[in-house]
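Notes, p. 3: input format for complexes.
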Amino acid sequence: MGFSEPITSTVAVADAAVPQTADDLSRRMHVPRVKRFVRSAVFTLLRFSGLPFLIRELWQRNRVTIVTYHELDPAHADVHFLTLRARYNVISLSHFLAARSSRTVESLPRKALIITLDDGHRSNFDLRSVIEKHRIPVTIFLCSGIVGTHRHYWWLHTKDAREAQALKALPDEQRVQVLLSRGHADGQEYETRQSLSRDEITAMKSIVDFQSHTVLHPILPACSIERARSEIVASKEALESEHGLKIYALAYPNGDYSDREASLLQQAGYACGLTLDAGSNDAHTDPFRLRRVALPDDARINEVIVKTSGLWAFLKAFASKRTTLGQAC
Ligand SMILES: [Zn+2]
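Output follows (329 residues plus zinc ion):
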């Protein structure tokens, strides 16, 4: 999941647990129309400033950029894939790792880009024809305890995105207790299905590289070491034994990890871990701390181009540094 709201420490308890889609959540966050217009204008200006082009040609040329989505719909996927393919060379995650192992990263296509999706949402199945049309490799990270069941993603049982952020900041037992208090348990089955089914995973296997996103998507650093280890180990085992997949990569839920998680992944036999740390990758990037760019599923072309270049993350980091310095003074 990927919300950009700041983490707060208060948890407002909703009256009832109502399943929500990501769209519901963003609507309820109520981004004012003026703010959306200004944001769109900023992305347009940044795109045509020429900076994304310069960054691609000078910085990303010999690096590997990884982007991630969640519930990308076919119409946006078609436009996004076209936009990205026109500017980057899409390669698979396994191709990058193989080049790393054989120390031949420099032989990868220039401006290499890897496309990933997190969580294994049911709607990912609708992307088949777009993936086939563009003939590009895509990696989808699955929660082994949710795919193939009628269990739900826990953050879709929170009041809104702000509350989901607040729950992520809690120790995992407390997060579970808050959700239990409103009638949602991690292992609970519902009438509706939110994730890919077993048959859908089988049907997509030939065009999609499925990898691990833990069992039930807890925030790993907020878990006890036993729970964190179990989420990492059991997810790999289940996806391999129940779905016949070869699991070598794990995307940290919410991009959250610490040295402990990186080490647990290594011990469990993974070859890499993917974060949401800003930036791109090269032969020297720690494979258990691969950087990714989170792209909104409904982003317009200008936002896709600006964010994929890394310019947006750079400007945000610069702005927050200035704010921090200002506050310190
Ligand atoms: Zn996720």
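The beta strands are 64-69, 89-90, 112-119, 138-142, 208-212, 249-251, 272-274, 293-294.
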